[in-house]
Write a structure and sequence with these properties.
about 180 residues; alpha+beta; four-stranded antiparallel β-sheet; three-stranded mixed β-sheet; 5 helices; 7 strands; about 20% strand; rod-shaped
Length: about 180
């Protein structure tokens, strides 16, 4: 038996280049496992965990698991962000609050303006229609209102909605919106 182990060790050394010599311990373990496999008493081969390192398959499995967790987290964040931004996107400019609300499909983008000064509202809406705003009276500028505006809505319909407010009159002449008291 020892002779077979020595022969095996010598055969391994002869077939390996000198810079990659197998350790004597490894050759002994290999010969012992070969002998056990011939006798049918071999144990299941366990991957080497020398120097505190995990086996390769374990590292690969951990990397795949972490990758899945990372991608799932990014997907969850994207879904939550899209839900929150779709429901309400708010930006503050001074004392005004402009909220972008989702509009039903086919209606274009809608905006809800809450507690906004009339001059701020019209400065947001008028450029979309290519209009300028002229205030004939100073009082309507500071009037605070809450309303909604849909970009697919014609300017005349939007101004008609604003004209329903008490004491406010908006008319268009060409590409100019005139604002005055009633």
């Amino acid at each position: 038996m020892k002779q077979k182990n020595n022969d095996l060790r010598e055969a391994l050394r002869r077939h390996e280049p000198e810079e990659h010599q197998l350790s004597v311990d490894f050759a002994d373990r290999l010969a012992e496992r070969l002998q056990q496999s011939r006798e049918g008493t071999a144990t299941v081969c366990q991957p080497s965990t020398e120097k505190g390192r995990q086996p390769r398959w374990f590292r690969k499995a951990a990397a795949i698991f972490l990758g899945i967790v990372l991608v799932s987290g990014i997907a969850l964040a994207a879904v939550l962000f899209s839900r929150s931004s779709g429901v309400q996107e708010a930006r503050s400019s001074g004392n005004t609050l402009v909220q972008r609300s989702p509009s039903p499909i086919g209606e274009g983008r809608g905006e809800a303006f809450t507690n906004i000064r009339l001059d701020s509202l019209l400065s947001n809406v008028a450029p979309y229609y290519g209009c300028t705003v002229v205030y004939r009276d100073a009082q309507p500028r500071s009037l605070r209102i809450s309303t909604t505006w849909n970009q697919r809505q014609p300017l005349a319909a939007f101004l008609e909605l604003l004209n329903e407010l008490d004491g406010l009159r908006l008319i268009t002449e060409g590409d100019t919106i005139f604002v005055s008291n009633k």
